[in-house]
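Q: Can someone sanity-check these two? First one:
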Amino acid sequence: MAKVLARLLALVHRDTDLDETEAAPDATVAETFPEDRILESAPAPEPSTGTRTAYARLDAPDRVAPGGVFELDVGLAESPGRGVTSPQPLSVPDTEFTLTVTVSADGFEVLGGASLVRTIAVNPDDPYPYDVIRLRAIDDVALTPARSILAVYAIEGRTIGIATRSVVVGDGAVPAEPERAGVDWVLPTDPDTRPDLELVVTPGNDIGGQRLFWYFRSPHPTVGDGSFVAADLPVTVATTVRQLLNGVEDRTTLDDLPYYLRGVGQRIADAIPDPVWQALKATADAVEGPPSVLLASADPYIPWELARIPWCHDDPPLLGAQTVIGRWPYLANGRSPAPAPRLELDSMAVVFGEYSGGENLEEAAREAAHLRAHYAAQPVDARMRDILRCLDGTPRADALHLAVHGNFDPTGMRDGIYLVDGNYLSPVSVEGVESSPIRLAFLNACQLAQGREVFGIYAGMAFALLNIGAEAVVAPLWKVNDTAARELAAAFYPALFTDVRSPAEFLREFRCLSVETNPAATPLAYIYFGHPLLRVKWIP
């Protein structure tokens, strides 16, 4: 491993009772102006190249009876719609353009064989057109009464926003008017920093929470944009994933570890819909070298990075090793901002401490000393008060490194950062910081990349840090080897701080290291949360 890490370092330097069979209307609302209203003497207008604002139209009744049919209007609006959750006004051209709206309506049946992907012509004479989709509310006790409808708005393959609204099926309470957040959606809007493929994994409207919907888009014409594709997970997904990861830890010294990991990879691959795999293959064919992938997922459990690629013959044939991938949490009940493509950092803090008895981490001490010597990292004792003060800004740091023990406990009793006094700093306490100057966090502590749901929302230590301001987080899924973890950290920062490689690019190469020769399968343990093409400028 040391030789390969040295190589990595070397690289641095270089809707009720309508006829169901009717087709959905295809016409948009339009207004025409007679030619004689135009003065002949008026000079020809200059071509416009500016923009204007509009709102996402996603109009539907607040409530519908089970089995009831209703109309869903999708398109643009002059003012915010009732019950619609969307970002600030959409920025659209003030000239002619084509708007594409892709709808996800889990728990509703589309009538007339219509499509949930609508293409709408927009022009100055008809600046707020819309199309109509007729839907029937499916009567099924396995579905939630309050069902979310989601729509993605795009122009020429560039997503300009998203809108959601809730339709109550039956006698349930109608949700309160949503707050409108003024942040970008989870996908980047800058064409210069778009990844080769963006995957969004959203939750369905089933009571059990096992249904996911996958959506993809790509700037490459051979890949393009997809529609929402459903995939159902087993009821026991959280328990199953935990058992699989425990299985990796139990096999750290056994000969079957590489085979076990292949089995884990195959199980995860089976949970990914075929259209997504096809999009990944088309993306890989469209670029030279490993494609960049942004995975925005509402699922906090499954390490998609370990999925075994069905058409790949390179070793290891895993998603995280054959793509430059960054994971980002998708919040179904809120508005997820897009990950930052660039960061400027100027100060670092390192958390470590001396544990009692056989729990002491000698390699972590060396790790901390290295960061103090090379990056003037300020030392923070692995005690609750000290770490929380650091997250709050004392000492000031925008990069945080943890060289400590960690533990994932779904019961929450022994969950989080293990402290030198035997206590645990919980992700819930970390979220209580609310706002932190930390922008980059490397949690070199066991199991802290694992996530779970709390009240139906993404949760875990990595998410807690993202929730209080971090833009990039690296952490392992399972217990890692101390020496390998230290060597990884020593190579990570020189690669990152040269402003030419992202954490995703570095970890992709690290995951390509042989599992057979690396204790605890350390290369495959680390997960990266952030923009796959993130560039960091270090200004100490």
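And here is the second, same format, sequence then tokens:
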Amino acid sequence: MFDTLLIANRGEIACRVMRTAQAMGIRCVAVYSEADAKALHVRMADEAVCIGPAASSESYLKGDRIIAAAKETGAEAIHPGYGFLSENAEFAEAVIDAGLIWVGPKPASIRAMGLKDAAKKLMAEAGVPVTPGFMGEDQSAKTLAKEADAIGYPVLIKAVAGGGGKGMRKVDDAKDFGDALESVKREATSSFGNDVVILEKWIESPRHIEVQLFGDSHGNVIHLFERDCSLQRRHQKVIEEAPAPGMSEETRRDVCAAAVRAGQAVNYEGAGTVEFIADASEGLRADRIWFMEMNTRLQVEHPVTEEITGVDLVEWQLRVAAGEPIPVEQDDLVIDGHAIEARLYAEDPATGFLPSTGRLDHFDLGDEGRIETGVEEGDMISPHYDPMIAKLVAWGEDRDDAIEALADILDDLEVWPVKTNAGFLLRAATHEDFVEAKLDTGFIARHEDDLIPDGGPSDAHWQTAAMIAVAEPDPQPLAGFRLNASPRTSVALTHKGETRVIDLAEVEETLPGAGFDDGERVVLFVGGEATEFALTSRGVAGAAAGDGAILAPMPGKVTSVDVSQGEKVSKGQRLLTLEAMKMEHGLTAPFDGVVSELTAEAGQQVQVEALLAKVEKE
């Protein structure tokens, strides 16, 4: 075994590799960009080398600088992680030519699987079932359109060098084929420098099934069973699990055997994944599962395989790279329980999943399950790299137990002010169709309204935030606790321009969850999501809204009055708008009733806690 390993990656995967290597007594060298100078993987490493500016094209994708860093630090081997240069055959070759150990498959294996058309031909020759389609050399628009007609619509146009959802278009009708083909070719040329495409039959009710392979330099190739990665958004995996729900032992045997044949066909060494597309319209059947592509690296979702097999795949990678054989035989491996992984991203589902960057001022992922992350509280989420914050992995005796464990992890996590997709993941993992394993790659698009609900915080959110604002000194004990004995009887909070004066005497019960009050705001954590309320006023007995009085939460100008005296109003209905702190704040009715007093007028300047209106219950 080598003594020193350089990890040519960053973030979560660099930390993951480092933990195993250091546990094995291997000295670890990190590389980092200028933006990552204080990153967790740098702090964990025994030594670290800066390899360039923030842009990955000037740092993590500079193979020559990485090799130079290895030589400078005395590293004998390079682990590429995933992404960046992990499937770059030229880089792998350069590492080997430099006299270093490449922790991955041979460059020839990477090349063999690098282009989708060549890989499919090779797999067909090896007896691996491939998706019906066209992989011909004639790339003329006329020929491709003719072949699409022969396959039958809908068809999928795929760039041979594509990946990550790029260079792919579904075409439902012949009249749209020409425009779709041009679009794919433009995208493929821009992203991959190669506009060659293949055509595939579009699979109805598709499920994404993949098999974890492992090979060594002694001619052994084995599988570690399958994973289901069907929950995807725009071809990017979101939730993965192992084993695949609904996979019979007979189908598992056939699919895994096909994956092993694929590995043997390219003399595979190290960790790799054979990806299949399944027509699940009639369940998972071996005769309806076809080869899609092979990833010649460790996968993001490898922890679920480790959880059900008890294997450390990174340790195997390092041992096999050092020339050792795979430490077990196929028959030694069995499936134990069920594991599910959710990818926690710094993104906001409510704004179309736009990335969210900044400092992690509050970061607590709990202590349940298996958490794989590359950041800690106080670290920065950079705009330069992939926005994945962590992988949340849950294991259970069966699938139901694993789902429940994952839901608990998601429900309890606390991240602020960076936004995350935790609430989205929680709703997906607990959705009735997911629980019942009604899965396919269209799941998220089909249930988007359920997974990304409209609307702001509920009344219970407002009331819980108010209770946190008056809790002293620690809001944690408030969960589910009535606290109406406080000397304060009202709290004014503002969320996205809406201000409410919360009568503490009417708060029956708070939501389970937690939060904090830093003097300027209350941040409430419920269901994995953070909701921020500006703390505009804490009322006392003489300035309460408990009797339906609507008080100004701060000095400002009344910009509109939306009701009249004597009008019936509903709880939550906007009564008037106050402009303050360069924002408009809508003041709402605390309960159903009648506007018995209305002293506010549009254009009026008011002071804090001035009586603006009063609502009486009917």
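A (reply): Looked at the second one. The radius of gyration is 29 Å. The domain at 338-454 is CATH 3.30.470.20 (D-amino Acid Aminotransferase; Chain A, domain 1).
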